[in-house]
Amino acid sequence: MLKNKLIIILALVGVMAGCVSTQQARVDFDRNSEITTADYKTFAWLNQSKILAESVDANPVMKVRIDNAIEQAFIAKGYQLVNDTEQADFTISYTMGSREKVKVDSFPLVYRNSFMWGSRYYGGMGTDTRVRNITEGKLAIDVYDVKSHQPVWHGWAVKRIKSSEQDNPSKAIKMVVEQVVAQF
After folding, report:
1. CA trace torsion 93, 82, 63, 98 (10° rounding)
2. How far apart are CA 36 and CA 49, in angstroms?
3. Coil, strand, or helix at residue 46?
4. Partner of 25 for a Cys bridge, out of 4, 30, 157, 164, CB 3.0 to 4.6 A?
5. Residue 69 in 3-state DSSP?
């Protein structure tokens, strides 16, 4: 009997551990296969504002954090920042934004409560529905070839923004930017 309870508890712990989400950013990219980037050594910003299209409700302090994080990520990869776009091998720009989403979870009550035999287990199972508002942020970084004036690479990240990250965003911004630029 004790052995059966231990097996059930271990199985439940395993299932719960599998359901835990680290809320990492989903990162991906698209590359123009017709242009090679192997000889790139220098980069510059595409335009003076650095951002491709600034949204109406953009936070200017957040923009400075993102500008700096992107510059530092490319420098950390070994590229040199130059001021003159014509002297650079490639230019960079980015877009950012966030949106509110509604997340609905609906589970049988037995998944939310303790495991019990009886009416909850046999036939009397109700559902528990929870509705939450979440903020999802997106950052996209674009790379353009200076000689051909063609887009070379587009990398992006989408991440749920937790309230702790809204209060202190620098660490999350740095992490997401590094994940995106690592794909270049």
Report:
1. 20
2. 27
3. coil
4. 157
5. helix
What digits encode the pLDDT tens for the residues 10-45?
444 444 444 444 458 899 999 999 999 999 999 999
Q: Which of 182, 179, 147 is nearest to 39 (CA)?
A: 147
Which amino acid belongs to residue 74? F
Q: What is the DSSP letter of 118?
A: S
User: Whole-model pTM?
Assistant: 0.71
Name every residue whose Cβ is closer than 8 Å to that of residue 139 and which is 6 or more positions away in sequence: 66, 94, 95, 96, 156, 157, 176, 177, 180
Q: CA-to-CA distance for 137 and 161, rounded, in angstroms?
A: 6
Residues 123, 63: contact at Cβ < 8 Å?
Answer: no
DSSP assignment string, 76-113: HTT-EE-S-GGGSSEEEEEEEEEEEEEEEEEEEHHHHS
